[in-house]
Amino acid sequence: MKRYSGRDFTPQEITLIRQLIAENPDYTRAELSRRVCTLLHWYKIDGGSKAMSCRVAMIRMQDDGLIQLPAPTRKRPEVRIRFTTATDPEQTVTAAVHELPPLQFHSVRKGKQSSLWNEYIHRYHYLGYKTLPGAQMRYFITAGDQIIALLGFGASAWQCAPRDNYIGWSHEQRKQNLHLIINNARFLILPWVQSKNLASKILAIASRKVPDDWQHRYGYRPVLLETFVEKKRFAGTCYKAANWLYMGETKGRGKLGPAGKQSVPIKGLWLYPLTRGFRQSLGADL
User: Fold this and answer.
1) Which one, out of 60, 70, 158, 212, has a CA that is 20 to 30 A from the CA of 101?
2) 227 and 244 Cβ atoms separated by less than 8 Å
3) How far apart are the first and last CA of the chain?
4) What does each C-alpha distance from 189 to 175, 199, 258, 273 come to in angstroms?
5) What SS3 class is residue 174?
6) Domains in the chain, please, with CATH?
7) 27: how many CB neighbours lie within 10 A of its CB?
8) Cross-strand bridge partners of residue 271
9) pTM
10) CA gap 266, 232 in Å, rounded
11) Cα atoms in the 13 Å half-sphere on the side-chain side of 189
């Protein structure tokens, strides 16, 4: 059994992929990934194909010498984000959160608003812009007419020992219900905004709003939020103030790092249960 992109592949399935490639030499990588998803019944919770995850999985299989993919038809374009005056620094905001106009969350989809969100994140977040994996929700947070913060939620980590031990679920339960956990992948308070208690206030509102928005967009309701805070940079104070639970440290291996070796920074894991019965919803045996 081999595991790629959060899915276990049997030797028979890898043989099937190998045969599909051999019998269809004119298929592109995109066509192969769509066909493999159909053959293996690999779909997202909303019924859509997991073609992108499949393509990544097949590239990893090729790296491991299990299959040989056709050459890519074109080089993937490099994502370049140019900074514009739209994201230039603004006047410093120092009022405490209770002195600001009411905070408003504005969900981001596509088009100009998406490009603007990406530009802010790439310009001011230490991790820069990267496409959020899988299902996602992105927000601008405004006070009056001014953008003061940005949030992004996406797919949860495939596995994380402190989280999985806290939930108490099995491998099969995690595989079936992982989509019910979503990850706060980006949280940015713009650098000219220095408002006391703003971060924890935003997180408190998000914990109430995001589940409703997620259900409206994707047809199911998450039961647990997670986030990873780089230990050398941040203490996670705002998450603690918003009643998130600290679960411990990651081992620094990342998704693709070698076993037993640190390849990415150590991060602290924080969780926020959205329902009292989140463990039952995740299938854990109580």
Assistant:
1) 212
2) yes
3) 29
4) 34, 7, 34, 23
5) helix
6) 2-63 (no CATH), 85-281 (3.40.630.30)
7) 16
8) 226, 245
9) 0.80
10) 8
11) 19
For residue range 181-237, list pLDDT tens digits in order: 999 999 999 999 999 999 999 999 999 999 999 999 999 999 999 999 998 898 899
Q: Are 67 and 15 in contact (CB under 8 A)?
A: no
CA 22/CA 145 separation, integer angstroms: 58
Token pair, residue 202, equals 């935003």
**Of 183, 104, 180, residue with least CA distance to 139:** 104
Q: Which of 197, 192, 120 is nearest to 151 (CA)?
A: 120
- Residue 124: helix, strand or coil by DSSP? helix
| H or E stretch at 199 | helix 198-218
For tokens 């076993």, name the residue: 259
Structure tokens belonging to residue 111: 């088009």
DSSP 97: G
